[in-house]
Design goal:
Structural class: alpha/beta
Distance between the termini: 66 Å
Mean pLDDT: 72
Low-confidence stretches: 53-63, 187-214
Number of strands: 11
Shape: globular
Helix content: 10-25%
C-alpha cells in the first residue's frame, strides 16, 4: 500500500510539473505576442487626440486599437488638479510620477504622465517648480493605465496623492469628462536637463504660439 501511495504522490507531482511547464510556455507566448504588438504600434503614425470615444479602453495585453500608439494632444493643462503617483522608485531612488490633465478643445481631458520626480519620502514634491505654460502640445505614447488594487480616492485635497493614476478610478473627482487612456510623455534624454517631448514622426511640427510640453526626468 505504501508503494501505491508513493506512486500516486509521484504521479500528482509530475502532473503539476507538466501543468506548470505548459503555463510557463503559454505565458512566454503571450509576452512575445504583446511585445510584437507593441513594436508594431510604436511604428505607426501618431494619433491626434481630440476625444477618444471611438477608442475602446481595455487592459494590458488585450486587443486595443489605441494602446501603445504614438499620440499628439493639444490643449490646456489644468495644474490645479494634478495627480501625484506615490512610491515610484527608479534605480532604487525614491520618487513620484506626476500626471496632469490636459483639457482638449471638445471639453474632455486626458491625463498626461509628465514624468518621474525624485522625492526623499516618495510622496512630497514641489509642484510650483514643475509648472510650465498652460497651453501646450504633447507628444507621447497612449497607454491604458490600470490600478493593480483598489484604493481610496481623496475627496477634497489637490493635488491627489494616490498609488495609481488609473483614469477610471479618478474620473469622479474631475468636473469634466476624463478619457480612459493616458498619454505618457516621450522624453528627450539628451544631456542638458529637462527637455521637450520628442516627435515620433519625421520633420518638425508647426506649433504656432503653442509650446511643446516639458517632460520630466
Amino acid at each position: 500500500m505504501r508503494a501505491y501511495g508513493v506512486l500516486i504522490v509521484g504521479a500528482l507531482a509530475a502532473a503539476v510539473c507538466v501543468r506548470l511547464g505548459f503555463w510557463q510556455v503559454t505565458r512566454l507566448h503571450q509576452r512575445q505576442a504583446l511585445r510584437a504588438t507593441v513594436e508594431t504600434r510604436l511604428r505607426q503614425p501618431p494619433v491626434e487626440v481630440t476625444g477618444f470615444a471611438a477608442f475602446r479602453a481595455t487592459t494590458l495585453g488585450t486587443t486595443d486599437s489605441a494602446a501603445y500608439r504614438p499620440a499628439v494632444a493639444r490643449g490646456v493643462f489644468d495644474f490645479s488638479r494634478q495627480v501625484v503617483v506615490v512610491a515610484r522608485a527608479v534605480d532604487q531612488v525614491p520618487g513620484v510620477y506626476l500626471a496632469t490633465p490636459l483639457r482638449l478643445a471638445d471639453g474632455q481631458a486626458i491625463l498626461v504622465e509628465r514624468g518621474w520626480v525624485p522625492s526623499p519620502d516618495a510622496y512630497t514634491v514641489r509642484l510650483d517648480t514643475l509648472r510650465e505654460a498652460d497651453t501646450a502640445w504633447v507628444t507621447g505614447i497612449l497607454l491604458r493605465v490600470t490600478a493593480s488594487r483598489e484604493f481610496a480616492v481623496p475627496d477634497t485635497t489637490w493635488p491627489m496623492h494616490v498609488p495609481s493614476d488609473d483614469p477610471t478610478k479618478l474620473a469622479r473627482r474631475y468636473p469634466y469628462p476624463l478619457l480612459r487612456h493616458s498619454v505618457v510623455c516621450v522624453r528627450d534624454h539628451r544631456r542638458g536637463g529637462v527637455g521637450p517631448a520628442v516627435h515620433t514622426g519625421k520633420g518638425k511640427r508647426e506649433t504656432g504660439n503653442v509650446k511643446p510640453a516639458r517632460c520630466l526626468y
